[in-house]
Specification:
By secondary structure, this protein is an alpha/beta fold. The chain has 15 helices and 15 strands. The strands form four sheets. It has a seven-stranded mixed β-sheet, with helices on both faces. β6, α9 and β7 (231-236) form a beta-alpha-beta unit. α4 packs parallel to α11 (274-285) and α5 (101-112) crosses α6 (128-135). The chain is globular. Bound molecules: pyridoxal-5'-phosphate. Pyridoxal-5'-phosphate is lined by residues 40, 100-102, 126, 172, 176, 204, 206, 236, 238, 244, 249.
Length: 399
């Protein structure tokens, strides 16, 4: 016997976004006035009607195990939402409710990956994708997408990355960290490759309600029967309804995939939290006014932030069309020096900002782009103004 840890476990990197947020909290606890641009969650309270449904669930004693794949009422509500909002004809049996979007993704890859199967991940990417794929025994295959391509993967690049081992391709639109949204035309071209190569597309649509400038996101699975049969659609309550702590995500998948996901979940977590399922049912079927109200606030912050960044020296950003992040190119700044020392890396850029300017930003090396940072606008306008002023002061110091 030995007390060695698992190779698989050791291969996983801790989430650097959570680490930055923890550092900002620690400095605040020491009394520092830190502005945190790291937030991956809306800063609004969960809408009152949703909280009320949870309280009612507790009072009614809805506090026991539920079916593994979620309550029938919630699976039906998700199926109805998929049909009405996304034009995806998933029946309730094809829907699995999980403990958050991350857990839904974990179940998906556990259900479809055999050891050594490859999963294509357009880069930049949300940092959890490769780790989730590796934990399921898969091999992430990264395809770099440049700013000149709006950080989006082209059908040619997708086709070129496919091998005999390719099992799936991860599509995230609206995108974290870039804020880009794929057009219907772009999705149709990608769908053609996916069907031809006979691989799954895992479509993570968690930011679907947060799009701006009149842009409407399209679900790739809605573009025809062939692509629908190859699509696993993943979503969750966290970002649209400001329910990050409630931990409810959901998936629509071909029936055999949904069944395997449900079996896996039945052993891993039994079921998602019963009270949060009642709250999610209310979120999906109750009044929806809070969704556009939050989006409007995000939009005002987005515009302000982009206008400010456009005027700053040594950095640039493409205006995001969705989600709540600005992906900032700092490659010019990295070549310059601060107090006589070359900045060099995005990690060092972020370290100087937090230690000397009380401002937390996300260095994007773990998102596959080591000359970018991510700024979240899921914080209030006063903090945004203060934080951007500090970043500008730092940039003006660079020589
Ligand atoms: N997908 C993307 C692109 C995300 O950014 C996140 C959270 O940051 C998730 C999925 C998972 O969200 P949750 O597990 O909170 O539902």
């Amino acid at each position: 016997m030995s007390l060695e840890l698992s190779v698989k476990g050791l291969s996983v990197k801790p989430s650097s976004t959570l680490a930055i947020t923890a550092k900002a909290k620690e400095l605040r606890a020491q009394g520092k006035d830190v502005v945190g641009f790291g937030a991956g969650e809306p800063d609004f309270d969960t809408p009152e009607n949703i909280c009320r449904a949870a309280k009612e669930a507790i009072d009614a004693g809805f506090t026991k195990y539920t079916p593994a794949a979620g309550t029938q009422e919630l699976r039906k509500a998700v199926s109805d939402k998929f049909k009405k909002v996304n034009h995806l004809n998933y029946e309730p049996e094809q829907v699995v409710i999980s403990n958050g979007g991350k857990h839904a993704l974990t179940n998906i890859f556990e259900a479809i990956i055999n050891p050594g199967d490859e999963v294509i991940i357009p880069t930049p990417f949300w940092l959890s994708y490769p780790e989730i794929v590796k934990l399921a025994g898969g091999v992430p295959v990264f395809v770099r997408c440049e700013a000149s391509e709006n950080y989006k993967i082209s059908p040619e690049k997708l086709a070129a990355a496919c091998t005999a081992k390719t099992k799936a391709f991860i599509l995230n639109s609206p995108n974290n960290p870039t804020g880009m949204v794929y057009t219907e035309e772009e999705l149709r071209a990608l769908a053609k490759v996916i069907v031809e190569k006979d691989i799954y597309v895992v479509s993570d649509e968690i930011y679907e309600y947060l799009t701006y400038d009149g842009i409407k996101p399209v679900s790739i699975g809605s573009l025809g029967d062939d692509i629908f049969a190859h699509t696993i659609t993943c979503n969750g309550m966290a970002k649209s309804y400001s329910m990050t702590g409630w931990r409810i995500g959901y998936t629509g998948a071909p029936l055999p995939v949904a069944k395997v996901m449900s079996s896996i979940q039945s052993h891993q977590t039994s079921n998602p939290n019963s009270i949060a399922q009642k709250a999610s049912f209310e979120a999906l079927t109750g009044p929806q006014e809070s969704v556009p109200a939050m989006r409007e606030q995000f939009d005002r912050r987005r515009i302000y932030m982009c206008e400010q960044i456009e005027q700053m020296p040594h950095v640039s950003a493409i205006r995001p069309q969705g989600a709540f992040y600005v992906f900032v190119d700092i490659s010019e700044a990295l070549k310059l020096s601060y107090n006589g020392k070359k900045v060099g890396t995005c990690g060092e850029f972020a370290r100087i900002l937090i230690e000397e300017f009380d401002t937390a930003v996300i260095p994007c090396a773990d998102f596959g782009f080591d000359d970018h940072i991510r700024l979240s606008y899921a914080i209030n306008m006063v903090a945004i103004k203060k934080g951007l002023d500090r970043i500008e002061t730092f940039l003006k110091h660079l020589k």
